[in-house]
Amino acid sequence: MSGSYTQELEVAQKAVRIAAQVCQAVQQAITTESLAKKDKSPVTVADFASQAVICRELQAAFPDDPVIGEEDSAELKTAEAAPFLENVQKELSQIGIDGSPEDICGWIDRGGSHTYASRFWTLDPIDGTKGFLRGEQYAVSLALIVDGKIDVALLGCPNLYSEPNNQGTKGVLLYAVRGQGAWQVPLSGGEPQQIHCSSAETFSDARLCESVESGHSAHGLSARVADALGIKNDPVRLDSQAKYAVVARGDADIYLRLPTRPGYREKIWDHAGGVLVVEEAGGKVTDVTGKPLEFTYGHQLEENLGVIVTNGKLHEAVVSKVVEARQAEEAQQQ
Ligand SMILES: Nc1ncnc2c1ncn2[C@@H]1O[C@H](COP(=O)(O)OS(=O)(=O)O)[C@@H](OP(=O)(O)O)[C@H]1O
Ligand SMILES: [Mg+2]
Ligand SMILES: [Mg+2]
Ligand SMILES: [Mg+2]
C-alpha cells in the first residue's frame, strides 16, 4: 500500500540531517582513521556513527521495519577496534546521543538485515567512503521500499553545493516521495525547491558523470560509449550518489556505472536513494541491458548488471550504445 508517507519523510529527514552533521564533524577532524573491512574496503568512525544514528531514529518511530544497511558491528567488536568504538561513542555524545558500546553496536546492527521484506528501509550511512576520506563528495542515502518499489528516498550530500559550479549553499538534502516530485533543500534548513532533470535531447553538449574509482565503473568502456554517442565533453568524475543528485538537478545528463568484473552485484543501498530522486525529477534508471532495477532480492541487485541513469530523453540511445559496446568488447576478448 502506498500513501503520503508524511511521517516517514519527516523521521527520515531528521535522521539524515543528524547523520550528516556527525559525518561533517568527523571529516573536519584533522585525521580521519579508517578500518579495512573483509573485502579490503575502508570504513570510518563516521560510517558507524551515521548508521547508529539513523537506525536509532528509525527504531524509535518504526520499530517493526527492518533495515538493510551496509555496516555491521562485527569489525567494531574486536579488541583492536576498541579505541575506534570509543571514538564513535565520543562523536555521538557530541551531538547529545549517549550510549554504551553495547547500545551503539545494537543500533548499528538494527541495520544488519539482508533479507527482502514487504516493507523495509535500506541505508548507506556513507556512500563514497573513499570520497569522504579524500575530503570530496559523499552521501548519506536512505530509502523506504514497499512491495519492491522505492516509495521514499533521501540523499544527504554535505559537500555538494545547492547550485552547479560550487555556487549557492554548501550541503544539500535531496528527497522524493513516489508521485510527489523531487526536491532539494539546504541541509541547514530553508525552503525546499523542486528539481528537474535536464531537457537535453542531443548528445553534442551532453554531460556524462561516472565514479572516481576505476574499480567501481569501467572508464575505458564509458569513453568508447561517449565517443559513439558523439559526446564532446570529458566525463565528470565524482564519488557517491552525488552522481544521481547532479542528474536529478539537470547539472549532468547521464550517469554510467559499467561493470568492471563479471561476478559483482550492485548493492541496493548504493542506488535506492538516488533512483527515486532521479525518477521523480523526470529521469530514467535501468541496468546496462535496459532492465529496470529490481529491489526484491535482499541486499543485492541480483538480477541486474551495472546502472544507466539519464534525464529520460536520452535513455534509449544510451542503452543501445552501451549494449553495442559491451558486445564489441566481448567479441574482442574471444
Ligand atoms: N567492483 C565494484 N563495482 C561497483 N561498485 C563497487 C565495487 N566495489 C565496491 N563498490 C561500491 O562502490 C561504492 C562507491 O561508488 P562510487 O560511485 O562512489 O565510487 S567512487 O568513489 O566514485 O569511485 C561503494 O560504496 P561505499 O562502500 O558506501 O563507499 C561500494 O559499495
Ligand atoms: Mg563501504
Ligand atoms: Mg555505497
Ligand atoms: Mg557506504
Task: Summarize this entry quickly.
InterPro entries: DPNP, Inositol_monoP_metal-BS, Inositol_monoP_superfamily, Inositol_monophosphatase-like, Inositol_monophosphatase_CS. It is built from 9 helices and 14 strands.
In words, what does this structure look like?
- The protein is α+β, with helices and mostly antiparallel strands.
- The protein has two domains: 6-195, Fructose-1,6-Bisphosphatase, subunit A, domain 1 (Fructose-1,6-Bisphosphatase, Chain A, domain 1, 2-Layer Sandwich); 208-333, D-Maltodextrin-Binding Protein, domain 2 (3-Layer(aba) Sandwich).
- It contains nine helices and 14 strands.
- Strands 3-4-5-6-7-8-9 form a seven-stranded mixed beta sheet, sandwiched between helices. Strands 11-10-12-14-13 form a five-stranded mixed beta sheet, with helices on both faces.
- A hairpin with a 5-residue loop joins strand 1 and strand 2 (42-44).
- Helix 6 (219-229) packs across helix 9 and helix 7 runs parallel beside helix 8 (272-280).
- The chain is globular and about 55 Å long.
- The chain starts with 5 loop residues before the first helix and ends with a helix.
- The model has no long low-confidence stretch (mean pLDDT 96).
- Bound molecules: 3'-phosphate-adenosine-5'-phosphate sulfate and magnesium ion (3 copies).
- 3'-phosphate-adenosine-5'-phosphate sulfate binds at residues 41, 70, 124, 126-131, 211-213, 215-216, 239-240, 260, 264, 267, 270.
